[in-house]
Amino acid sequence: MAPRIRGTDQLRTLLHLAWQGLRMWTPRQIGAAVISAAAVALVIGVATVLIPNPVFARDIEPVWWNYPIWILTAALTGMLIATYVRAHRAAPAAPADSDESSQRRSSRFGLAGTVLAWFAVGCPVCNKIALLALGYSGAITWFTPVQPYLAGAAVIFCALALVIRLKGQVLCAAPAQSSPAAAERVGA
User: Fold this and answer.
1) Which sequence spans correspond to the domains of the chain?
2) DSSP state of 56
3) Which residues cross the membrane (predicted)?
4) 80-119: buried (b, 16+ CB within 10 Å) or exposed (e) per residue?
5) What's the number of CA atoms in the CB half-sphere (13 Å) around residue 186?
6) Cβ-based neighbours of 120, under 8 Å, separated by 6 or more
7) pLDDT tens digits, one per residue of 33-60
8) Nearest Cα to 95, choosing from 172, 9, 10?
9) Which residues contact 134 (CB under 8 A, 6 or more apart)?
10) Is 44 within 8 Å of 121 (Cβ atoms)?
11) What would the pLDDT profile of 112-170 be if each residue is shown by its tens digit?
């Protein structure tokens, strides 16, 4: 049997820790994930006219892959937002200095992924940034073919941010609160 690649083992461990973090979720975190995912889906869906509405218009019809990317990134972003919700009301906040750079990195990945998803599923000529930078024909010629890659990057960034946060919930879990009597015994 061939020896395992070290990177594969690290990836497997990372995903296992993320799965453990997800399994530790409380109903409060699950509810936050569902509500957050619905809110993100609503905002992106209305703004990009994947949900038809009278406020926004779309010049180019959505393509088939816009809908799965929209729903997947909304679900991942909702789950990422739920990682910031404390498991219990009485639990103390986790110390911020333990893994602050990892938290900032995951926040940036999550934000970048959500913004990329918005660009990926939006109308290429309705996007004012692409329209100003490339013009109407440039947006169709240059920006439209890039949108599937933006969609892939959006899913990767959102998933990476979620895995980092879930791993942190397992490795940097806040200690459980103890009763005052137990605290007195430890201090004695």
Assistant:
1) 24-87+100-170
2) -
3) 30-51, 63-85, 109-134, 146-164
4) bbbbeeeeeeeeeebeeeebeeebeebeebbebbbebbbb
5) 7
6) 66, 69, 147, 148, 150, 151, 154
7) 999 999 999 999 999 999 999 999 888 8
8) 172
9) 141, 142, 143
10) yes
11) 999 999 999 998 888 788 878 888 888 888 889 999 999 999 999 999 999 989 888 87
- Decide if 154 contacts 120 (C-beta within 8 A): yes
What tokens appear for 113 in the block?
């992924």
Task: Please list, in sequence order, all residues whose beta carbon lies within 8 angstroms of the beta carbon of residue 188, skipping any fewer than 6 positions away.
Answer: none
The phi and psi torsions of 112 (rounded to 5 degrees) equal -60, -40
- Amino acid identity of 124? P
Tokens (6 digits) for 105: 């990195």
**Which pTM value belongs to this model?**
0.79
